[in-house]
Amino acid sequence: MTFKEIQDLIKLIQKTDLTEFKLKKEDMELVIRTKQFQKGGEQVHTVAPAPIVSMPPQAVAAPAAQQPISESAPAAPAPAKAEQPASGESETSNLIEIKSPIVGTFYRSPGPDKPPFKKVGDMVEPGETVCIVEAMKLFNEIESEVGGKIVKVVTEDASPCEYDQVLFLVDPKG
Q1: Which phi and psi angles does 90 have, rounded to 5°?
Q2: Could you give phi then psi for residue 72, rounded to 5 degrees?
Q3: Tens-place pLDDT, residues 125-174
Q4: Integer Cα distance of 82 and 84 in angstroms
Q5: Which distant-in-sequence residues (6+ apart) come within 8 Å of 164 by Cβ?
Q6: Measured between alpha carbons, how far is 144 from 122 in angstroms, rounded to an integer?
Q7: Average pLDDT of the chain?
Q8: Among 26, 50, 87, 120, who pairs with 163 as Cys (CB 3.0-4.6 Å)?
Q9: Dihedral sign computed on CA atoms, order 8, 101, 16, 52
Q10: Contacts of 54 (CB under 8 A, 6+ apart)
Q11: pTM score, two decimals?
Q12: Which domains does the chain show, CATH number per domain?
């Protein structure tokens, strides 16, 4: 089972009322639990909002000769309204967040000597690549689901990022 297939399965399960999904296949076991999963009648609270996925490392490891950037499937983060700061500044209330769909290392450019995909002040259209998140030696191009003007790069280049971590803030009004 490929990483992309697992991502698609997680998205599909999130659209249903399922709280737990188990798949056993030869030497691989996949368990996905949602936030609503209850064990023994009590709700189990997870630390991260992401579904729990457990499987042996060899099941998703990529071959060493694979060209990660060109062959990895682009993942699109789900946009969400930015939280309004405590100071009550109204100019940030209309900003939309571009979040990381996976855990990995955030890179603003396709290579160390290349310019960043997008920088502050650049316009972005839905479907445009805004950055790369490296996960398990696979470079996943992250595409914007929203259009607008990038007003802030929240995550520092070449730093670790978590699932659902804000990477960019976009002003949809441009």
Answers
A1: -80, -20
A2: -75, 145
A3: 999 999 999 998 899 999 999 999 999 999 999 999 999 999 999 999 87
A4: 6
A5: 48, 49, 50, 99, 100, 101
A6: 13
A7: 75
A8: 50
A9: positive
A10: 29, 30, 31
A11: 0.50
A12: 18-59 (no CATH), 68-171 (2.40.50.100)
Amino acid identity at 114: K
What b-and-e string marks burial along 2-31, b requiring 16 or more CB atoms within 10 Å of the CB?
Answer: ebeebbebbeebeeeeebbbeeeeeeeebe
Distance of CA 137 to CAs 41, 69, 109, 127, 163, Å? 39, 10, 16, 23, 17
Question: Within 10 Å of residue 100's Cβ, how many Cβ atoms?
Answer: 22
113: tokens are 């000597």
Look-up of token digits 């290392």 = 105
pLDDT of residue 15: 79
Name 136's Cβ contacts closer than 8 Å, sequence gap at least 6.
3, 60, 61, 62, 104
Task: Yes or no: say if 144 and 98 are a contact pair by the CB < 8 Å rule.
Answer: yes
